[in-house]
Amino acid sequence: MISMKITFLGTGAAVPSKNRNHIGIAFKFNGEVFLFDCGENIQRQMLFTEISPMKINHIFITHLHGDHILGIPGLLQSLGFFGREKELKIFGPEGTKDIIKNALEFGYNYINYPIKVYEIKEKNPAIVLKEDDYEIITYPTKHTVPSYAYIFREIKKPRLDVKKALKLGVKVGPDLKKLKEGEAVKTENGSIVYPKDVLLPPKKGFCLAYSGDTLPLEDFGQFLRDIKCDVLIHEATFDDQCRDTARENMHTTIGEAVNIARLAHVKVLILTHISARYDKEEFFKTYLENVEEYNNKEDFKIMVSEDLMTLDVKNDLL
Prior knowledge:
The protein starts with a strand and ends with a helix. The strands form 4 sheets. A 7-stranded mixed β-sheet has the order 6-5-4-3-2-1-18. A 7-stranded mixed β-sheet has the order 7-8-9-14-15-16-17, with helices on one face. It is built from 12 helices and 18 strands. The protein folds into 2 domains: 4-156 and 203-317, 4-Layer Sandwich (Metallo-beta-lactamase, Chain A); 159-199, no CATH class. The protein is an alpha/beta fold. The protein is globular and about 75 Å long.
């Protein structure tokens, strides 16, 4: 299994607190780092983790509220100081191009590497990035401004039925590799063996979803179920007692996030974007007790994210 780790660089909402930085999530996949949201101070948070900013090739912004984007100008400038040359791709809702343009014009800097910005305008789920071994899907959510969730899906290649290939006369060596890569081969007896003759369906790849800020959307949960999502990182800014406040600010409560995870049939739900009100010990105790109520009756694991928490997908989650 390819190495995959999730690091929470910031887990707070709206304003930073003593215990929680502005929001930012780094997902490390096969040596590359995907950054989801980039709140203020995110680059300094990386110094306390194994995350290298130079390994970030893609940044995905859920929406343009300050607590999700104010770390971008500093990060871009630091990458310039580090001597970055590789292109950086940034995805976000309409208006992201103006944000990056302003960031590049903010003061003097040494940003000489290429930056490409992709603005998302889709009103339905859409693939915004596709590579050989993964794809990123965006899903429109409901917040006070245009907002999107992001879903990472690992793409597995078809498996080769070696025994069947050998039985059909394929010799051990380069021909087996050709078949696995989708190329037909000719055996010594002159017969042609096609990939469809010897390839098995690929195994399911890992799937991770991040909601961004949003009202609870049952359709989102059902979509995640259909694509067989494994881990859902969902905002739960408030506990269930603050449902009216959550609704007024177009956020999600613990119970509502749990319901989305239940609909999605995920294995793990990780709650994040937690209000600064929970820096107070008595309020945070209430929050944790609320989480534990659901943990005792759901068949999936529910976790509360903490700043600098790193989870190994294979060992800690699956």
